[in-house]
Design brief:
By secondary structure, this protein is mainly alpha-helical. 53% of the residues lie in helices and 8% in strands. The radius of gyration is 12 Å and the shape is globular.
C-alpha cells in the first residue's frame, strides 16, 4: 500500500473496529470480521497503522495481535484526524 491522500471506507471501518475494542488485543482476522472487510485487507491496514504509530503490535504465535495505541494521537495526530474526519464524511461515527 503506497502513500496516498485518500482514506477508504474500509480503512475507516478497520480503525473504528480497533477503537471500539478500547485497548484489547485482537488478531487482524478478528478486526476483519468486526470491520466487515477481507482478512488480507485487514492485515495490510494493521501493518500500515503499526508503521504510522497508531497501533501497538504483539508478535506472538500463531497470529500477531494488534490494538489501537494509547499514544496514537500523540504519535500521529494528523492521521488520526484524517481517519476521524473520513468517519464523519462516511457517516460512520462512534460505534
Amino acid at each position: 500500500m503506497g502513500e496516498r491522500n485518500e482514506v477508504s471506507v474500509q480503512e475507516v471501518r478497520f480503525y473504528l473496529a480497533a477503537k471500539a475494542a478500547a485497548g484489547q488485543w485482537n488478531t487482524a482476522q478478528a478486526l476483519a470480521v468486526a470491520a466487515k472487510i477481507a482478512p488480507r485487507t485487514s492485515r495490510a491496514y494493521a501493518t500500515k497503522l503499526v508503521k504510522l504509530g497508531l497501533f501497538d503490535v504483539a508478535e506472538v504465535f500463531p497470529a500477531h495481535r494488534y490494538r489501537l495505541s494509547d499514544k496514537a494521537s500523540k504519535r500521529n495526530a494528523a492521521y488520526v484526524q484524517r481517519l476521524e474526519g473520513a468517519a464523519e464524511v462516511f457517516s460512520l461515527g462512534e460505534r
